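Entry for the shared binder. Reason: the reviewer on the internal report wants the predicted structure included alongside the sequence.
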Amino acid sequence: MTSTNIKLRYKGESANVNISWEDEPFSGCVYTFTGANTAIWPYKEELSRLGGYFIQAREPQNIEAHLNAAYAASKYYKGFTYKVTPEVDLFAYLEPEDKDPEVVY
């Protein structure tokens, strides 16, 4: 089991999102929230909006969706910050054709 933690801070409050997965982080992630709701709600708001906007971010059981939600919240909510520990290298989990796709015009 692999896991990572996203530390959220907003309006002087903090919270954590602990995310774990078995084989690969693009499906089947289990996540738990701890801490202040003030820090969690901007993150959850962005997580609910993701839908299919980002590559492979189709469901909240996806580490990429969580990372994108934290990033988006940091851009749309003044003062919202986050830190991922340990960092997740998604490149290692991509298929070979996704790592170097052929450009077609």
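Summary line for the report: The longest helix spans residues 63-76.
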